[in-house]
Amino acid sequence: MKIIFGFLATILIVSLAPYSYASDPSPLQDFCVAVSDSAAAVFVNGKFCKNPNMVVADDFFLSGLNKPGNTSNAVGSRVTPVNVNQLPGLNTLGISAVRIDYAPYGLNPPHTHPRATEILVVLEGTLYVGFVTSNPANPAMKNKLFTKYLNPGDVFVFPEGLIHFQFNVGKTNAIAFAGLSSQNPGVITIANAVFGSDPPINPAVLTKAFQVEKNLIKMKIIFGFLATILIVSLAPFSFASDPSPLQDFCVAVSDSAAAVFVNGKFCKNPNMVVADDFFLSGLNKPGNTSNAVGSRVTPVNVNQLPGLNTLGISAVRIDYAPYGLNPPHTHPRATEILVVLEGTLYVGFVTSNPANPAMKNKLFTKYLNPGDVFVFPEGLIHFQFNVGKTNAVAFAGLSSQNPGVITIANAVFGSDPPINPAVLTKAFQVEKNVIDYLQAQFWSNIG
Ligand SMILES: *[C@@H]1O[C@H](CO)[C@@H](O)[C@H](O)[C@H]1NC(C)=O
């Protein structure tokens, strides 16, 4: 056990060391031990720092992670977090950890960390784990599922913002530890955020997004609120930290001849750069909304407009037929600011899992008219629904040249290959025939 713990520590150290491009707010001092000063009238993006003269070793110390978490709940797993909320010394340092316990056939259901990549080490048991890539550039392709069976000592990485899960396929308890690349990674349990938000998402949105009958969605809203077992805290005040990736992943190769990608694109010789590299036309033309959801996203990111490379921004035009829906999705690498030009949209986003497991993921909604602006924070599930009888048009800016998009229904029910139905049956707490039905649908990405 000691050896395996040592192994985990080594991974955490290595993960911080030579290959990470530190960017974003690097700490500006040795440490900034968190204090929750409720008397203060202002908030910062993260926690306040404790007076360095008052800092003690115990600010960097926590015990009890040898104790199993209680897995007596609907999904049969328990995440015990060690982030800045439990260990104040992590403040500003860009890393945290979790212990995960799994009962036999226990599931850590499909979820994302909006602000962190996760590296997981199995200590006991056998886990079936996987993650799903964001929507492919080619709409005829599906979101790709990567899975692996893990045994003790095995290590697996879940890239930042992507939907992932772990399922104990053994007859015994399983244990894993994981490091996360943020002191406050956040977690969004897909089933809870989509079907169990407070207040609920309008059933018309979910009916269209999941292409099912309305009574099934109503049932899901009533029963979909699982016990929130992932206590990794919501982080309205976190420091964004660490390198912002520009694609789902960039697997390292030592042989440069075998390299096909960098984290982003190669740069054009500056002597060859022309004005047209920064130019694109045609965004005045409506997108084709003749599809199952009645909307179309026309992207203007580094793939369409090469001059955006390295600049951290992109745009989209979104067209909505009457009652057209831009279904629940996330951008793993960007915040979005949306401006309505025509029509009336019902829009919303759902917060990540609250610290208090008795609370639900909170839904923020708004009706938007022409000229109205709304913000969808990085990594959170959001949607727009045209509630008018006419077409609607919106433009949005996104804070990455390659923000990525994960359409929740497609990634969960339409991946290639499909996620094991046992995982989805447990995660969504429905009968297997419902999952079979959903996985049999054709899940087209609209942009
Ligand atoms: C585990 O949780 C269940 C359900 O909340 C509870 O009944 C039980 O007492 C807990 N067990 C322990 C050891 O805390």
From TrEMBL:
InterPro entries listed in its UniProt record: Cupin_1, Germin, Germin_Mn-BS, RmlC-like_jellyroll, RmlC_Cupin_sf
TM region positions: 221-239
Major subcellular site: secreted
KW Transmembrane helix (keyword) present: yes
Protein's UniProt keywords contain Manganese: yes
PROSITE patterns xref list: GERMIN
Highest taxon in the source lineage: Eukaryota
Position of the signal peptide: 1-22
Cellular localisation: Secreted, Extracellular space, Apoplast
Keywords recorded for this protein, A-Z: Apoplast, Disulfide bond, Manganese, Membrane, Metal-binding, Secreted, Signal, Transmembrane, Transmembrane helix
Domain Cupin type-1: 63-218, 281-436
Family: Belongs to the germin family.
Name of the protein in question: Cupin type-1 domain-containing protein
